[in-house]
Specification:
single chain; 424 residues; mainly alpha; Growth Hormone, Chain: A; 79% helix; 0% strand; globular; MFS; transmembrane; membrane; MFS_dom
Length: 424
């Protein structure tokens, strides 16, 4: 009894990171790196929408459709890559997606016409689809259950670091090389990351343990099983992701464009967007700890609601640089940082046999909402003759309210083991 008591006391005082092995850290590093590069290659376009519109003589509304083009096909790529991952493992599909979206970004920078630019963004979107979903699945299956949300939250900091990278590129690369140069900066780090994945990252042990004979019937395909066995989960989780992504992208996708409309210099825009990105990194990291402490639903709903209010405060005071900086940090921390819990919600609500397929599909169904948001906001403010500030604020707050309603249908999974979820 005394030995057990000492052991229990030691567990309570033991730091969480002491429980993570080097093999588990390597999985997180690989997944995190892919998510960083995914963010850099995608977010670069949010800084240069006006430049693209000018280069190809199209309206800003039309240029914003490039975001939808990228996001609109991601659900297909997410489902197919997820199904592939459930069949052949996690490591190879992760390497494929890194290569795919890096090539897609380079083609974007070289596009000679707007039509080809749109085609290349479709290509990029298909391949970048599993960037987060595969990583979240790998971390969820590799890390201990009691630290799973922390690992996925750390993984999501990659998006914030990528946002900082895109902002820094706008400050340093854009003035010298123009908007096209923004899309080539990811090539060298992607090569190094690919080599790390090939030689250092182990295949997911959970997948190895569940490995089955080759699938002979289309009915046994994980993508088909997902819809056949779990239609209700697909419905409410898909709707939740759609609303969540829609709510964050008026802020993420249009903040640089809005700051440009205020005639801010590139340096000031870079500082404000970097403050938001730093807030995102901190929010992603903190989100896992918050979710482990108070539960997935309360943590997600609370951060989302607070974040949307900070977004509204930011856009109405952005002309004051001193006020905009801390508000951008707080908006990034709470609104975008709350997405650090998305992967935990998805992976903990889906059984192992369809986990990669389900996360790949549902996360990327959600991002369609993110792709639609900038176009809908811009079209709406033109139709009702209002300002971009009002559009960003209204849609951010409105989407947060809708997400809180949908969250009521999502089950709380704090403390559940993946084995228990696999049987449900």
């Amino acid at each position: 009894m005394k030995t057990r008591a000492i052991s229990s006391e030691t567990d309570k005082t033991r730091r969480w990171y002491h429980d993570i092995t080097w093999a588990q850290w390597k999985v997180l590093i690989a997944a995190w790196g892919v998510w960083v590069m995914d963010a850099v290659d995608f977010l670069a376009i949010t800084f240069v929408l006006r430049d693209i519109a000018t280069t190809f003589n199209v309206t800003l509304d039309t240029a914003s459709l490039l975001l939808l083009a990228t996001y609109g096909v991601r659900w297909i790529g997410g489902l197919l890559f997820g199904s592939l991952s459930d069949r052949i493992g996690r490591k190879i599909p992760l390497l494929i997606t890194l290569t795919w979206f890096t090539v897609g970004a380079a083609l974007t920078g070289a596009a000679p016409t707007f039509a080809l630019l749109a085609a290349f963004r479709l290509f990029l979107g298909f391949g970048m689809a599993p960037g987060f979903s595969l990583g979240a699945t790998m971390v969820a299956e590799a890390w201990p259950e009691k630290h799973r949300a922390i690992g996925i939250g750390i993984l999501d900091t990659g998006w914030g670091l990528g946002a900082i990278g895109a902002a820094m590129a706008y400050n340093w690369v854009y003035p010298a090389f123009g908007w096209r140069g923004m899309f080539f900066i990811g090539i060298p780090p992607a090569i190094l990351l690919g080599l790390f994945i090939v030689f250092m990252v182990p295949e997911a042990q959970a997948w190895k343990e569940a490995k089955r004979e080759p699938i002979m019937s289309w009915r046994d395909n994980p993508a088909v099983v997902l819809f056949a066995r779990y239609p209700r989960r697909v419905a409410y989780l898909g709707l939740l992701m759609l609303v969540l992504c829609f709510g964050s992208w008026p802020f993420q996708g249009l903040l640089p464009t809005y700051l440009k409309s205020l005639q801010m210099a590139p340096g000031a825009i870079s500082w404000i967007t970097s403050a938001s990105a730093i807030g995102q990194v901190c929010g992603f990291f903190a989100s896992g700890f918050i979710a482990e402490r108070i539960g997935r639903r309360l943590a997600l709903g609370g951060m989302l609601a607070i974040g949307s209010l900070f977004v509204a405060a930011l856009v109405f005071s952005a002309s004051s640089f001193g006020i905009a900086l801390p508000l951008a940090f707080l908006a990034g921390f709470f609104l975008v940082g709350s997405s650090g819990i998305w992967g935990t919600v998805l992976t903990e609500n889906l059984p192992r046999d369809v986990r990669a397929s389900g996360v790949g599909l549902l996360y990327n169904v959600g991002v369609i909402g993110g792709g639609m948001a900038p176009f809908i906001v811009l079209s709406t403010i033109h139709r009702v003759n209002t300002t971009l500030a009002i559009g960003i604020a209204a849609f951010s707050v409105g989407a947060a309210v809708a997400a809180l309603i949908v969250l009521k249908f999502v089950r709380e999974t704090k403390g559940l083991r993946l084995q228990d979820i696999d049987k449900s």
